[in-house]
Amino acid sequence: CGVFGAVNVQDAANFVALGLHALQHRGQEAGGIITHHEERGFQSAHRFGLVRDNFTSAKLMETLPGSIGIGHVRYSTAGSKGATAIRDVQPFFGEFSMGGAAIAHNGNITNAEAIRRELIERGSIFQSSSDSECIIHLMARSIQKTHAERLKDALRRCEGAFSVIAMTRTKLIGVRDRLGVRPLVLGKIGDGYALASETCALDIIGAEFLREIEPGEMVVIDAKGVVSSRPFERTSPRFCIFEQVYFSRPDSIIGGRSVYETRRQIGVELAREAPVEADLVCPVPDSGTPAAIGYSQESGIPFAMGIIRNQYMGRTFIEPSEQIRNMGVRLKLNVNRALIEGKRVVLVDDSVVRGTTSQKIKQMILEAGAAEVHFRIASPPTTWPCFYGVDTPERSKLLAARMSEDEMRDYIGVDSLKFVSLDGLYRAAGELEGRNDSCPQFCDACFSGEYPVAPSDMIERGFEL
Ligand code: SF4
Ligand code: MG
Protein backbone atom coordinates (compact mmCIF):
# COMPACT_ATOMS: atom_id res chain seq x y z
CA CYS A 1 0.00 0.00 0.00
CA GLY A 2 0.92 3.66 -0.22
CA VAL A 3 0.36 6.39 2.36
CA PHE A 4 0.55 10.16 2.14
CA GLY A 5 -0.20 13.09 4.44
CA ALA A 6 0.14 16.88 4.37
CA VAL A 7 -0.22 19.52 7.07
CA ASN A 8 -0.32 23.31 7.05
CA VAL A 9 -0.94 23.60 3.33
CA GLN A 10 -3.86 25.15 1.48
CA ASP A 11 -6.38 22.58 0.24
CA ALA A 12 -4.50 19.61 1.63
CA ALA A 13 -6.75 17.14 -0.24
CA ASN A 14 -5.27 18.20 -3.58
CA PHE A 15 -1.77 17.48 -2.35
CA VAL A 16 -2.87 14.17 -0.91
CA ALA A 17 -4.53 13.17 -4.18
CA LEU A 18 -1.40 14.05 -6.14
CA GLY A 19 0.82 12.20 -3.66
CA LEU A 20 -1.38 9.12 -3.86
CA HIS A 21 -1.34 9.28 -7.64
CA ALA A 22 2.48 9.13 -7.50
CA LEU A 23 2.16 6.12 -5.17
CA GLN A 24 -0.43 4.33 -7.29
CA HIS A 25 2.06 1.55 -8.11
CA ARG A 26 1.81 0.54 -4.43
CA GLY A 27 -1.90 -0.22 -4.66
CA GLN A 28 -4.54 0.06 -7.32
CA GLU A 29 -7.61 -1.51 -5.78
CA ALA A 30 -8.93 1.47 -3.87
CA GLY A 31 -8.01 4.75 -2.25
CA GLY A 32 -9.23 7.10 0.44
CA ILE A 33 -8.64 10.60 1.78
CA ILE A 34 -9.58 12.23 5.10
CA THR A 35 -9.17 15.94 5.79
CA HIS A 36 -9.99 18.33 8.62
CA HIS A 37 -11.36 21.85 8.35
CA GLU A 38 -11.88 24.24 11.31
CA GLU A 39 -15.60 24.71 10.60
CA ARG A 40 -16.55 21.65 8.63
CA GLY A 41 -14.66 19.17 10.78
CA PHE A 42 -13.43 15.79 9.49
CA GLN A 43 -14.51 14.78 6.01
CA SER A 44 -13.66 11.61 4.15
CA ALA A 45 -14.04 9.84 0.83
CA HIS A 46 -13.25 6.21 0.07
CA ARG A 47 -13.44 4.85 -3.45
CA PHE A 48 -12.62 1.73 -5.44
CA GLY A 49 -10.26 2.19 -8.35
CA LEU A 50 -7.54 4.57 -9.33
CA VAL A 51 -6.83 7.95 -7.79
CA ARG A 52 -7.05 9.70 -11.16
CA ASP A 53 -10.53 8.29 -11.76
CA ASN A 54 -11.88 9.44 -8.40
CA PHE A 55 -9.96 12.19 -6.70
CA THR A 56 -9.83 14.56 -9.67
CA SER A 57 -13.46 15.64 -9.78
CA ALA A 58 -13.96 19.16 -8.43
CA LYS A 59 -17.26 18.04 -6.95
CA LEU A 60 -15.62 15.38 -4.81
CA MET A 61 -12.56 17.42 -3.89
CA GLU A 62 -14.77 20.27 -2.62
CA THR A 63 -16.13 17.87 -0.04
CA LEU A 64 -12.61 17.47 1.39
CA PRO A 65 -11.70 20.94 2.69
CA GLY A 66 -8.96 21.90 5.12
CA SER A 67 -5.24 22.41 5.55
CA ILE A 68 -4.48 18.92 6.89
CA GLY A 69 -5.19 15.56 5.31
CA ILE A 70 -4.02 11.98 4.87
CA GLY A 71 -4.68 9.29 2.30
CA HIS A 72 -4.08 5.68 1.39
CA VAL A 73 -3.94 3.54 -1.75
CA ARG A 74 -4.73 -0.07 -1.14
CA TYR A 75 -3.76 -3.47 -2.40
CA SER A 76 -4.82 -6.42 -0.33
CA THR A 77 -2.14 -8.71 1.09
CA ALA A 78 -1.61 -12.06 2.78
CA GLY A 79 -3.90 -11.67 5.77
CA SER A 80 -6.93 -10.30 3.93
CA LYS A 81 -9.78 -12.70 3.33
CA GLY A 82 -12.05 -12.43 0.33
CA ALA A 83 -12.75 -9.36 -1.77
CA THR A 84 -12.15 -5.85 -0.51
CA ALA A 85 -15.25 -4.10 0.80
CA ILE A 86 -15.41 -0.34 0.77
CA ARG A 87 -15.26 -0.42 4.56
CA ASP A 88 -11.81 -2.05 4.28
CA VAL A 89 -10.53 1.02 2.48
CA GLN A 90 -8.36 3.33 4.58
CA PRO A 91 -7.83 5.83 6.16
CA PHE A 92 -9.74 4.64 9.23
CA PHE A 93 -11.29 7.22 11.53
CA GLY A 94 -12.17 7.16 15.23
CA GLU A 95 -13.66 9.60 17.77
CA PHE A 96 -11.72 9.91 21.02
CA SER A 97 -12.32 11.92 24.17
CA MET A 98 -9.77 14.45 22.96
CA GLY A 99 -11.18 14.61 19.42
CA GLY A 100 -11.15 12.60 16.23
CA ALA A 101 -8.16 10.96 14.60
CA ALA A 102 -7.52 9.00 11.43
CA ILE A 103 -4.84 6.52 10.42
CA ALA A 104 -3.42 5.12 7.21
CA HIS A 105 -1.21 2.03 7.45
CA ASN A 106 1.25 0.41 5.06
CA GLY A 107 2.58 -2.99 6.05
CA ASN A 108 1.04 -5.92 7.82
CA ILE A 109 0.52 -6.50 11.52
CA THR A 110 1.46 -10.11 12.10
CA ASN A 111 -0.41 -10.53 15.39
CA ALA A 112 -3.54 -8.65 14.28
CA GLU A 113 -5.81 -11.70 14.50
CA ALA A 114 -4.88 -12.33 18.11
CA ILE A 115 -5.39 -8.66 18.96
CA ARG A 116 -8.72 -8.56 17.16
CA ARG A 117 -10.01 -11.64 19.00
CA GLU A 118 -9.08 -10.14 22.33
CA LEU A 119 -10.61 -6.74 21.52
CA ILE A 120 -13.86 -8.23 20.25
CA GLU A 121 -14.16 -10.25 23.44
CA ARG A 122 -13.80 -7.00 25.36
CA GLY A 123 -16.48 -5.21 23.37
CA SER A 124 -14.80 -3.56 20.40
CA ILE A 125 -16.96 -3.40 17.29
CA PHE A 126 -14.84 -3.92 14.19
CA GLN A 127 -16.04 -2.46 10.89
CA SER A 128 -13.58 -4.03 8.46
CA SER A 129 -11.56 -7.18 7.90
CA SER A 130 -8.32 -5.18 7.86
CA ASP A 131 -5.44 -5.82 10.24
CA SER A 132 -4.91 -2.05 10.38
CA GLU A 133 -8.20 -1.44 12.16
CA CYS A 134 -6.67 -2.88 15.35
CA ILE A 135 -4.64 0.28 15.68
CA ILE A 136 -7.69 2.53 16.08
CA HIS A 137 -9.29 0.17 18.64
CA LEU A 138 -6.08 -0.14 20.62
CA MET A 139 -5.85 3.66 20.66
CA ALA A 140 -9.41 3.83 21.98
CA ARG A 141 -8.46 1.59 24.90
CA SER A 142 -5.32 3.50 25.86
CA ILE A 143 -5.52 5.79 28.89
CA GLN A 144 -3.00 8.29 27.52
CA LYS A 145 -4.00 11.93 27.14
CA THR A 146 -2.86 12.67 23.59
CA HIS A 147 -3.47 10.91 20.31
CA ALA A 148 0.26 10.51 19.74
CA GLU A 149 0.75 8.80 23.12
CA ARG A 150 -2.23 6.56 22.45
CA LEU A 151 -0.83 5.65 19.06
CA LYS A 152 2.44 4.69 20.74
CA ASP A 153 0.56 2.49 23.20
CA ALA A 154 -1.33 0.86 20.35
CA LEU A 155 1.71 0.21 18.19
CA ARG A 156 3.74 -1.21 21.06
CA ARG A 157 1.24 -4.07 21.04
CA CYS A 158 1.55 -4.62 17.30
CA GLU A 159 4.10 -6.96 15.77
CA GLY A 160 5.23 -6.97 12.16
CA ALA A 161 5.55 -4.15 9.69
CA PHE A 162 3.96 -0.74 9.91
CA SER A 163 4.59 2.62 8.39
CA VAL A 164 1.67 4.63 9.74
CA ILE A 165 0.50 8.15 8.98
CA ALA A 166 -2.08 9.52 11.42
CA MET A 167 -3.84 12.87 11.73
CA THR A 168 -5.75 14.77 14.36
CA ARG A 169 -7.43 18.16 13.94
CA THR A 170 -4.06 19.92 13.90
CA LYS A 171 -1.30 17.33 13.89
CA LEU A 172 0.18 14.97 11.36
CA ILE A 173 1.93 11.92 12.85
CA GLY A 174 4.30 9.49 11.17
CA VAL A 175 5.65 6.24 12.67
CA ARG A 176 7.75 3.33 11.46
CA ASP A 177 8.10 -0.04 13.15
CA ARG A 178 11.43 -0.67 14.80
CA LEU A 179 12.76 -2.72 11.89
CA GLY A 180 11.67 -0.10 9.37
CA VAL A 181 10.37 -2.77 6.99
CA ARG A 182 8.24 -0.37 4.92
CA PRO A 183 9.45 3.06 3.79
CA LEU A 184 8.28 6.48 5.04
CA VAL A 185 9.77 9.87 4.20
CA LEU A 186 9.39 13.47 5.34
CA GLY A 187 9.22 16.50 3.08
CA LYS A 188 8.77 20.25 3.34
CA ILE A 189 6.37 22.25 1.20
CA GLY A 190 6.11 25.99 1.78
CA ASP A 191 5.22 26.45 5.46
CA GLY A 192 3.87 22.93 5.60
CA TYR A 193 5.11 19.36 5.72
CA ALA A 194 4.35 16.13 3.94
CA LEU A 195 4.81 12.47 4.85
CA ALA A 196 4.88 9.85 2.10
CA SER A 197 5.75 6.24 1.41
CA GLU A 198 8.31 7.27 -1.20
CA THR A 199 10.16 10.36 -2.36
CA CYS A 200 8.48 10.24 -5.79
CA ALA A 201 5.32 11.45 -4.03
CA LEU A 202 7.20 14.48 -2.69
CA ASP A 203 8.52 15.28 -6.16
CA ILE A 204 5.07 15.41 -7.70
CA ILE A 205 3.92 18.21 -5.36
CA GLY A 206 7.23 20.05 -5.50
CA ALA A 207 8.07 19.29 -1.88
CA GLU A 208 11.66 19.20 -0.70
CA PHE A 209 12.82 15.79 0.59
CA LEU A 210 14.09 16.35 4.14
CA ARG A 211 14.84 12.84 5.38
CA GLU A 212 13.48 9.36 6.01
CA ILE A 213 11.54 8.69 9.18
CA GLU A 214 13.91 6.34 10.95
CA PRO A 215 13.03 2.78 11.92
CA GLY A 216 11.38 2.97 15.35
CA GLU A 217 10.82 6.72 15.13
CA MET A 218 7.65 8.77 15.59
CA VAL A 219 7.33 12.33 14.33
CA VAL A 220 4.51 14.67 15.39
CA ILE A 221 4.15 17.61 13.03
CA ASP A 222 2.10 20.79 13.20
CA ALA A 223 2.40 24.43 12.16
CA LYS A 224 5.21 24.86 14.69
CA GLY A 225 7.43 22.11 13.32
CA VAL A 226 8.50 18.50 13.77
CA VAL A 227 8.92 16.75 17.14
CA SER A 228 10.65 13.37 17.06
CA SER A 229 10.53 10.55 19.61
CA ARG A 230 11.55 6.89 19.92
CA PRO A 231 8.65 4.84 21.23
CA PHE A 232 10.13 1.39 20.60
CA GLU A 233 13.09 -0.59 21.76
CA ARG A 234 16.05 -0.08 19.44
CA THR A 235 17.19 -2.86 17.15
CA SER A 236 19.05 -3.14 13.85
CA PRO A 237 16.87 -2.14 10.92
CA ARG A 238 15.62 -4.65 8.35
CA PHE A 239 14.25 -2.70 5.41
CA CYS A 240 12.39 -4.82 2.84
CA ILE A 241 14.88 -5.69 0.11
CA PHE A 242 12.03 -6.44 -2.26
CA GLU A 243 11.15 -2.71 -2.22
CA GLN A 244 14.53 -2.27 -3.90
CA VAL A 245 13.90 -5.02 -6.43
CA TYR A 246 10.31 -4.35 -7.44
CA PHE A 247 7.91 -2.59 -5.15
CA SER A 248 9.21 0.98 -5.00
CA ARG A 249 9.34 3.30 -7.96
CA PRO A 250 12.76 3.54 -9.65
CA ASP A 251 12.80 7.34 -9.33
CA SER A 252 12.54 7.15 -5.52
CA ILE A 253 15.50 7.56 -3.19
CA ILE A 254 15.87 4.95 -0.43
CA GLY A 255 18.64 4.94 2.14
CA GLY A 256 20.33 7.78 0.25
CA ARG A 257 20.48 5.69 -2.95
CA SER A 258 18.50 5.82 -6.14
CA VAL A 259 16.28 2.77 -6.53
CA TYR A 260 16.98 2.88 -10.26
CA GLU A 261 20.72 2.70 -9.63
CA THR A 262 20.27 -0.27 -7.27
CA ARG A 263 18.23 -2.08 -9.92
CA ARG A 264 20.74 -1.28 -12.67
CA GLN A 265 23.47 -2.60 -10.40
CA ILE A 266 21.53 -5.85 -9.85
CA GLY A 267 21.78 -6.31 -13.62
CA VAL A 268 25.53 -5.73 -13.44
CA GLU A 269 25.83 -8.37 -10.70
CA LEU A 270 23.70 -10.77 -12.76
CA ALA A 271 25.91 -10.31 -15.82
CA ARG A 272 28.97 -11.15 -13.70
CA GLU A 273 27.38 -14.11 -11.95
CA ALA A 274 25.50 -15.56 -14.90
CA PRO A 275 27.01 -14.56 -18.24
CA VAL A 276 25.73 -16.05 -21.49
CA GLU A 277 26.46 -15.62 -25.19
CA ALA A 278 23.55 -13.87 -26.84
CA ASP A 279 22.53 -11.23 -29.39
CA LEU A 280 20.14 -9.10 -27.35
CA VAL A 281 19.30 -8.23 -23.76
CA CYS A 282 15.58 -7.49 -23.39
CA PRO A 283 13.72 -6.44 -20.28
CA VAL A 284 10.35 -7.77 -19.26
CA PRO A 285 8.87 -4.28 -18.92
CA ASP A 286 8.63 -2.34 -16.77
CA SER A 287 9.86 -4.16 -13.71
CA GLY A 288 12.87 -5.75 -15.43
CA THR A 289 14.06 -2.68 -17.32
CA PRO A 290 16.74 -1.12 -15.08
CA ALA A 291 18.31 -4.54 -14.40
CA ALA A 292 18.34 -5.31 -18.14
CA ILE A 293 20.15 -2.03 -18.77
CA GLY A 294 22.75 -3.04 -16.17
CA TYR A 295 23.11 -6.52 -17.67
CA SER A 296 23.60 -5.06 -21.13
CA GLN A 297 26.15 -2.48 -19.95
CA GLU A 298 28.20 -5.05 -18.07
CA SER A 299 28.05 -7.80 -20.72
CA GLY A 300 28.35 -5.59 -23.78
CA ILE A 301 25.34 -7.34 -25.35
CA PRO A 302 23.05 -4.72 -26.95
CA PHE A 303 19.92 -3.67 -25.07
CA ALA A 304 16.65 -3.84 -27.01
CA MET A 305 12.94 -3.58 -26.37
CA GLY A 306 12.00 -7.10 -27.42
CA ILE A 307 8.79 -7.00 -25.45
CA ILE A 308 6.43 -4.05 -25.62
CA ARG A 309 4.16 -3.17 -22.79
CA ASN A 310 0.67 -1.78 -23.14
CA GLN A 311 0.83 1.33 -20.98
CA TYR A 312 -2.86 1.14 -20.12
CA MET A 313 -2.51 -2.00 -18.01
CA GLY A 314 -1.61 -1.94 -14.36
CA ARG A 315 0.67 -4.24 -12.43
CA THR A 316 -0.29 -7.84 -13.17
CA PHE A 317 0.75 -9.11 -9.82
CA ILE A 318 -1.47 -6.76 -7.97
CA GLU A 319 -4.58 -8.19 -9.67
CA PRO A 320 -6.12 -10.14 -6.82
CA SER A 321 -7.69 -12.97 -8.83
CA GLU A 322 -5.63 -15.69 -10.44
CA GLN A 323 -7.78 -15.76 -13.56
CA ILE A 324 -7.28 -12.09 -14.35
CA ARG A 325 -3.61 -12.44 -13.60
CA ASN A 326 -3.29 -15.32 -16.07
CA MET A 327 -4.91 -13.31 -18.84
CA GLY A 328 -2.98 -10.29 -17.75
CA VAL A 329 0.31 -11.26 -19.30
CA ARG A 330 -1.04 -11.18 -22.85
CA LEU A 331 -3.18 -8.13 -22.25
CA LYS A 332 -0.14 -6.31 -21.00
CA LEU A 333 2.87 -7.58 -22.95
CA ASN A 334 3.52 -8.37 -26.59
CA VAL A 335 6.64 -9.51 -28.43
CA ASN A 336 8.36 -7.16 -30.84
CA ARG A 337 8.56 -9.84 -33.51
CA ALA A 338 10.69 -7.98 -36.07
CA LEU A 339 13.45 -7.60 -33.50
CA ILE A 340 13.36 -11.05 -31.92
CA GLU A 341 13.24 -13.34 -34.94
CA GLY A 342 16.30 -15.58 -35.19
CA LYS A 343 17.99 -13.96 -32.19
CA ARG A 344 19.49 -15.42 -29.03
CA VAL A 345 17.73 -13.39 -26.36
CA VAL A 346 18.52 -12.71 -22.70
CA LEU A 347 15.28 -11.82 -20.94
CA VAL A 348 15.58 -9.96 -17.65
CA ASP A 349 12.72 -9.85 -15.14
CA ASP A 350 12.60 -8.83 -11.50
CA SER A 351 11.21 -12.01 -9.94
CA VAL A 352 9.69 -15.42 -10.49
CA VAL A 353 6.82 -16.04 -8.10
CA ARG A 354 4.30 -18.53 -9.48
CA GLY A 355 6.15 -18.75 -12.78
CA THR A 356 3.07 -17.74 -14.77
CA THR A 357 4.64 -14.62 -16.28
CA SER A 358 7.88 -16.31 -17.32
CA GLN A 359 6.07 -19.23 -18.90
CA LYS A 360 3.77 -17.05 -20.97
CA ILE A 361 6.59 -14.80 -22.06
CA LYS A 362 8.78 -17.70 -23.07
CA GLN A 363 5.93 -19.04 -25.17
CA MET A 364 5.33 -15.69 -26.89
CA ILE A 365 8.98 -15.18 -27.59
CA LEU A 366 9.51 -18.65 -29.10
CA GLU A 367 6.40 -18.20 -31.24
CA ALA A 368 8.01 -15.02 -32.50
CA GLY A 369 10.98 -17.08 -33.70
CA ALA A 370 13.70 -16.48 -31.12
CA ALA A 371 16.65 -18.85 -31.56
CA GLU A 372 17.41 -19.14 -27.82
CA VAL A 373 15.83 -17.77 -24.65
CA HIS A 374 17.85 -17.17 -21.49
CA PHE A 375 16.08 -15.90 -18.40
CA ARG A 376 17.96 -13.77 -15.89
CA ILE A 377 16.11 -12.83 -12.72
CA ALA A 378 16.96 -9.75 -10.65
CA SER A 379 16.15 -11.43 -7.32
CA PRO A 380 16.95 -14.79 -5.76
CA PRO A 381 14.31 -17.55 -6.01
CA THR A 382 11.18 -16.59 -4.05
CA THR A 383 10.85 -19.54 -1.72
CA TRP A 384 8.80 -18.11 1.17
CA PRO A 385 5.70 -15.99 1.49
CA CYS A 386 5.85 -12.42 2.78
CA PHE A 387 3.82 -11.57 5.88
CA TYR A 388 4.87 -7.94 6.05
CA GLY A 389 2.71 -6.31 3.43
CA VAL A 390 3.71 -7.73 0.04
CA ASP A 391 1.24 -10.10 -1.52
CA THR A 392 2.89 -13.44 -2.15
CA PRO A 393 0.86 -16.61 -2.54
CA GLU A 394 1.02 -19.46 -0.07
CA ARG A 395 4.20 -21.50 -0.14
CA SER A 396 2.80 -24.36 -2.21
CA LYS A 397 2.16 -21.95 -5.11
CA LEU A 398 5.70 -20.58 -5.18
CA LEU A 399 7.55 -22.24 -8.03
CA ALA A 400 10.93 -22.04 -6.31
CA ALA A 401 9.56 -23.67 -3.16
CA ARG A 402 8.66 -26.77 -5.16
CA MET A 403 11.48 -26.98 -7.69
CA SER A 404 15.24 -26.70 -8.02
CA GLU A 405 16.68 -24.13 -10.42
CA ASP A 406 17.14 -26.76 -13.13
CA GLU A 407 13.59 -28.03 -12.67
CA MET A 408 12.29 -24.48 -12.98
CA ARG A 409 14.30 -24.01 -16.17
CA ASP A 410 12.72 -27.12 -17.67
CA TYR A 411 9.26 -26.24 -16.39
CA ILE A 412 9.40 -22.75 -17.91
CA GLY A 413 11.04 -24.30 -20.97
CA VAL A 414 13.98 -21.98 -21.56
CA ASP A 415 17.59 -22.62 -22.56
CA SER A 416 18.90 -21.27 -19.27
CA LEU A 417 17.54 -19.70 -16.09
CA LYS A 418 19.65 -17.91 -13.48
CA PHE A 419 18.82 -15.84 -10.43
CA VAL A 420 21.02 -13.19 -8.84
CA SER A 421 22.55 -14.43 -5.57
CA LEU A 422 21.47 -12.96 -2.25
CA ASP A 423 24.98 -11.53 -1.81
CA GLY A 424 24.84 -10.03 -5.29
CA LEU A 425 21.54 -8.41 -4.45
CA TYR A 426 22.94 -6.95 -1.21
CA ARG A 427 25.98 -5.61 -3.05
CA ALA A 428 23.73 -3.98 -5.62
CA ALA A 429 21.75 -2.38 -2.80
CA GLY A 430 24.93 -0.75 -1.49
CA GLU A 431 26.19 -3.40 0.95
CA LEU A 432 29.54 -3.94 -0.71
CA GLU A 433 30.53 -6.79 1.61
CA GLY A 434 27.32 -8.63 0.77
CA ARG A 435 24.88 -10.06 3.28
CA ASN A 436 25.96 -10.14 6.90
CA ASP A 437 24.53 -13.55 7.78
CA SER A 438 24.74 -13.05 11.54
CA CYS A 439 22.75 -9.80 11.31
CA PRO A 440 21.33 -9.24 7.81
CA GLN A 441 21.05 -5.59 6.77
CA PHE A 442 17.65 -6.12 5.10
CA CYS A 443 14.55 -8.22 5.47
CA ASP A 444 14.91 -10.93 2.84
CA ALA A 445 12.56 -13.53 4.32
CA CYS A 446 10.86 -14.30 1.00
CA PHE A 447 14.26 -15.42 -0.32
CA SER A 448 15.93 -16.78 2.81
CA GLY A 449 13.08 -17.93 5.05
CA GLU A 450 14.63 -15.92 7.90
CA TYR A 451 11.70 -13.94 9.23
CA PRO A 452 12.85 -11.01 11.37
CA VAL A 453 9.50 -11.12 13.22
CA ALA A 454 7.80 -14.46 13.78
CA PRO A 455 4.46 -14.29 11.92
CA SER A 456 2.47 -15.36 14.96
CA ASP A 457 -1.05 -15.33 13.45
CA MET A 458 0.14 -17.50 10.58
CA ILE A 459 1.99 -19.87 12.90
CA GLU A 460 -1.22 -20.24 14.88
CA ARG A 461 -2.97 -21.11 11.62
CA GLY A 462 -0.44 -23.86 11.00
CA PHE A 463 2.26 -22.17 8.94
CA GLU A 464 5.61 -23.91 9.48
CA LEU A 465 8.87 -22.02 9.46
FE1 SF4 B 1 10.07 -7.59 1.72
FE2 SF4 B 1 10.32 -10.19 1.23
FE3 SF4 B 1 10.68 -9.22 3.71
FE4 SF4 B 1 8.27 -9.27 2.61
S1 SF4 B 1 9.51 -11.04 3.16
S2 SF4 B 1 9.18 -7.59 3.75
S3 SF4 B 1 8.72 -8.84 0.47
S4 SF4 B 1 11.92 -8.83 1.88
MG1 MG C 1 6.97 -7.73 -14.04
Automatic annotation (TrEMBL):
It catalyses: 5-phospho-beta-D-ribosylamine + L-glutamate + diphosphate = 5-phospho-alpha-D-ribose 1-diphosphate + L-glutamine + H2O. InterPro entries: GATase_2_dom, Ntn_hydrolases_N, PRTase-like, PRTase_dom, PurF, PurF_N. It comes from the Bacteria. Residues 1-224 form the Glutamine amidotransferase type-2 domain. Its EC number is 2.4.2.14. Its cofactor is [4Fe-4S] cluster; Mg(2+). GO terms for molecular function: 4 iron, 4 sulfur cluster binding; amidophosphoribosyltransferase activity; magnesium ion binding. This is Amidophosphoribosyltransferase. It comes from Pararhodobacter marinus. The lineage of its organism: Bacteria, Pseudomonadati, Pseudomonadota, Alphaproteobacteria, Rhodobacterales.
